[in-house]
Amino acid sequence: MQLRRAAAAAAVVLSLSLLLLPSSTHAHNITHILEKNPDFSTFNHYLTVTQLAPEINRRETITVCAVDNAGMSDLLSKHLTIGAIKKVLSLHVLLDYFDAKKLHQITDGTALAATMFQATGSATGSAGFVNITDLKGGKVGFSPQDNGDVVSATFVKSVEAIPYNISVIQISSILPSPEAEAPAPAPSVTNITALMSAHGCKIFAETLLANPAEKTFEDNVESGLTIFCPSDDAMKGFLPKYKNLTAAGKQSLLEYHGTPIYQSLPGLKSSNGLTNTLATDGASKFDFDVQNDGTDVTIVTKIVTAKILNTLVDEQPLAIYELNKVLMPKELFKGSLPPAPAPAPEADAESPKPSKKKHKSKAAPAAPSDSPADAPGGDGDVADQTANGDGAARFNGGRFVAIILSLWVGFLQL
Q1: Contact 45, 261 (CB under 8 A)
Q2: SS in 3 state form for 260-297?
Q3: Which H helix or E strand runs over 411?
Q4: Are 27 and 392 within 8 A, CB to CB?
Q5: Residues 338-381: pLDDT tens digits?
């Protein structure tokens, strides 16, 4: 009996020890990995600007071929569009794990690796593949398929590795790719409004065409633009309010529905937080909060919470999303905010008794159609937060359940 009790106690202690150990599965954050070394600050910056960083963070078993600031200067001197820079940098993300050891032990001396550029479907043929070759003298060469198999860069060093999850290495220079560098024709505002009109946002598109805000949208397309267009049903109910705005207010409201950067839907989901808009101007913030609501993405202002219903366009450098409500900035609709409740009077033994004379109270004004009740309260954490470190341990639910069962069985035997 004593032996059985001792065995059960040992099982309990062992289970508790396992519970306290972190899981071997790790998340990674490419931004945090690269920011440790200022030599990669430019490369790191453009991973963020092009929205590649969140895509890298979601993937596993990958290799990022980072280039130092001098190498990035060569790329930037070509004056490529943001869309072209994204394609070039996506060629530097290999969809396989290559640390220093694996690079120097390539079977048959060469390997062909698919890249994120290939995975996007933007590359034609084999343009999105990179040849990795074990060269003489302990060097390893990299050559894009559409560059005539000429070795364009060599392995410099390992930056960081989380085995079989992510390897970050430095290569000597940018991998050239005529196809990746080719600029995509930027859509005109006429095309943008036509796309919105054809997909349930006709009223917003026509309103935009009739306003000076049209030029603001047009000027931002090439460098990157995201448009949040309210559906026709949402605009129909909002038009009376829109007509009551001043000319400047109408322009600001329309510009409030655009951001001066391209944001993919996965990027929005992983980059929650305050976002500036085309209407942002110094003290006039005109910003909103991007939040996740389960699998949905919501745009939260101080007045209303709108949900993304559909993706109309998502092609660098332009993204257009349909909303179920019109975004109402507090700078234009302060009157719609609920009044702050008056503090309750403190109890006082010597305070006069209330008069018995009754007074008729005025009826409260009716709440507007886009009620502030839709806006979430409090300053709680965002549902989907970026990992705090380079490799944060993830919670393993299956293992937790198994350990709890083990503890239960152990206690039954005591």
Answers
A1: no
A2: CCCCCHHHHHHCCEEECCCCCECCECCCEEEEEECCEE
A3: helix 397-413
A4: yes
A5: 444 544 544 443 444 444 433 333 433 433 433 333 333 333 33
